[in-house]
Amino acid sequence: MPYGDGMAIRARTEERRAEIVRAALNVIAERGYRGTSLAAVAERVGLTQQGLLHHFPTKDALLVAVLRERDQWDAMPETRWRVDLLASLVEYNAMRPGIIQTFSALLGESVTEGHPAREFFTGRYTDVRTTMAAALRAEYGDRLPSGLTPERAAPLLVAVMDGLQYQWLLDPEAVDMPAAFRDFLTLLGGEG
């Protein structure tokens, strides 16, 4: 097989995998992970279940690909996260309720023993807390105005971000997620 043919095949394979991941994200958003079947995802992209298994050998492998893809949308090098950019991320999240709903549903399901996303979310939260502590340290130094260290405040920051998402998903008319997060940043900075 000529070199160019191999590259074209790989490119088509990657495009197909991306299409499958997007379809899986939508099906999971509609039905939850446990209610999602490989057959439903395969049907959504016009494949047989066997054809889908060629790209993702298990439902768990597909779930991890969905989670990684979702995280890539928000990816930014750790050294570039700043507290003011977090408010922009919350505003961005308010424009994509389907993605946030899927993430939140999977997060909720992942706390059960043996869930295939548990390891992903455990590692993700370790990384996110580290990243948030670094952003807080860059903004405030070794102590926030409240006296907390960045490492002590980081889990609170993450909890507010995720907790606001749940409240907003349940009652978007009552919870202005971006405004509430900006209010939290004011409290965090000791302003107001």
What does this structure look like?
The mean pLDDT is about 85. α1 (about 5-30) packs across α2, α1 (about 5-30) crosses α4 and α8 (about 150-170) runs antiparallel to α9 (about 175-190). About 70% of the residues lie in helices and about 0% in strands. The chain is elongated, with a radius of gyration of 19 Å. By secondary structure, it is mainly α.
Largest sheet entry: none
Low-confidence stretches: none
- Give helix % range: over 70%
Number of helices: 9
User: What overall form do the CA principal axes indicate?
Assistant: elongated
Strands, total number: 0
Mean pLDDT: 87
First-to-last CA distance = 67 Å
Q: What multimeric state do the chains show?
A: single chain
Based on helices, strands and strand pairing, what is the structural class? mainly alpha
Strand content: under 5%
Q: Tell me the radius of gyration.
A: 19 Å
Order of helices and strands: HHHHHHHHH
Short description:
The protein is mostly helical and 192 residues long. It has helices at 3-31, 38-44, 49-55, 59-73, 83-93, 97-110, 118-140, 150-170, 177-188. The longest helix has 29 residues, at 3-31.
Question: Helices, strands, pairings?
Answer:
Blueprint: H1 3-31, H2 38-44, H3 49-55, H4 59-73, H5 83-93, H6 97-110, H7 118-140, H8 150-170, H9 177-188
Helix pairs in contact: 1-2, 1-4, 1-6, 2-3, 5-9, 6-8, 7-8, 8-9
Descriptors for this entry?
single chain, mainly alpha, 192 residues, 9 helices
